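Q: Structure for this?
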Amino acid sequence: MASFLLIVQSTFTLKILLLILAGSLFGMIVGAIPGLNTTLAVAIAIPITFYLEPVEALALLSAVYKNGIYGGSISAVLLGVPGTPAAACTVRDGYAMAKKGQAKKALDAALYASVFADVVGNTILILTASWLAQFALKFGPSENTLLVVFALVVVSLVGSSSLLKGLLASIIGLSLAMLGMDPMTGSPRFTFGNINMLSGVTLIPTLVGMFALSEIFVEYSNFCHAKAEGKSVDVPQDKKSRLSLKEFFSYWRTLIRSSLIGVFIGALPGSGPSTASFISYSMAQRSSKHPEEFGEGSVEGICASEAANNGVCGAAYIPLLTLGIPGDTITAIMYGALVLQGITPGPLVFTQQGDMITGLYVTLFICSIFMLVLGKILCRTLTNVLNVPKGILFPVIMIICFAGSYSMNNTMYDVLVMIIAGVLGYIYKRIDMPIAPTLIGFILGSQMERSLLQSLIKSENNLSIFVGSPIAIAFVIIIVLMVGSNFWKLMKAKKQK
Amino acid sequence: MEKKDRIKLKGLVTVPGIAVGLAIAAVYLVLTLLIPSQVRMTQGHLTNARLYPYFVCICAMLLALGFALTFRKNEFTFDLGIWPMVLASLMLYFGTKTLGFYTSSVIVIAYMMLMWNNRCWWKILLTSILTPVSIYLAFTVGMRIFMPTGILI
């Protein structure tokens, strides 16, 4: 106990607090800008860690990571553009609320849910890290394949008027992920001789194009129609719209369930915040007393998606620290930062570097406090963005999106991808096809292909591997039940007509 | 409605759902036919490299045909009147390659604001200058990300 208190005391230094403050602010701002993302923010922060002690380095990177994930929800609510892929689900209800003049309330919901899940995730990390890591080890290639299929089915059902449209959108996402190089053989695939296509379609420009650029096209179309009818497209924001803590905690079931989903998904290597937020959103919609409000501006919907994607943050450290396996790109960068500090993540890190791990735990909670304070301050000012007329706002957004897309790889190819994705996103919106399944399919496509092929190689092309373990069987049953219940509802609705 | 504010609503195109579905199916049919030339066959593996692409493309084709069948009576409206915005994005793309990012963004912002019926010249000037300056400060100075330059800046 005495040594624990000493570690806590040594963590509460001015230097660490300033690093967390700077990291939180930087992460939140970068996460909020469409086109930039948390991975970029963490990568930029890495060189600064060269001059820091291990706990200080982890404090800075954790602050950037967690606040970057939350920052994505700010542009999701205000502009309808997810700042990070994880916030794609938040767009549905957050932007809908902003259009009704309730942007502040939506931002409050996103902030409180993120902080809540952050604290839950940190707590579970401390209490159950090794147990969760052992469970995560039971996920083999077949389980990973079924997890991806499950995520795609869930995403197809969420917010889509038709499962068929959702599945088609998912498959389009999977096919986009096929472009570039074969992950098993390394051969070029569907590159059509274009050297730029070797790296495939870049995620962030596609995301920015499909959400931001397409929204500009749609809003311009609405503007032309509104102008012809003598109406205005600018929606004044209700300055008094706030989320009370009483209303927030009335969704405690959703918050706890979503946080746990985020922790579970975060503990699995390869699965990220995007998957967690959609699965959580779907479950919240199914169990909500007002499922019809989801997609139209539901506070519960925002809480579900944000709690899940921030719940992932703490849990992402579990495979990293306990097994030395980075769960996603960001934790892979953190793995590199730890190695630079002379620390090798793995089972021995808890015994050999116990003080550092305890210090990390303390800094994670401090990051949550800073997220809450900074989020409240920033949101108050950022809501004023919506008072800017669209005729000024959207040209600025286009330029920022252009700059953000270019900054990924410093090539104009990514900008072209963004423009094409923008046109594709516009077509999606006109045929009422959901964009999110395409995005999730794109993100999980390469993981699905690798896992599927590994499963088939392992089983020598025997498909029974997909029902060969309790986890796999559970996934199959859940998927069949979800699809079956959707068809049953459709048949029931047709009979009633 | 004043003459200068009148915006003609042209360019609304209605496409039947069956056409949309068949178009998507056609794209995936072409991709399926291109697999032998675009995906190299591998030797010595239990599963071949074309299995997954065939699986995805055929599933997509079937789903697209299902879409065409299910939504054959639906009609989807596309507003071709968005062409100024598409043009703006293409102007930015090609303008950046020749004139440089900062110069072309000034031109594109001014053009877009005019398309959104802004007639206040000082707002147009202020926005089109402040935005590239802010991006320069945030990206180039702050994050050392250098935007493309052209014959101007």
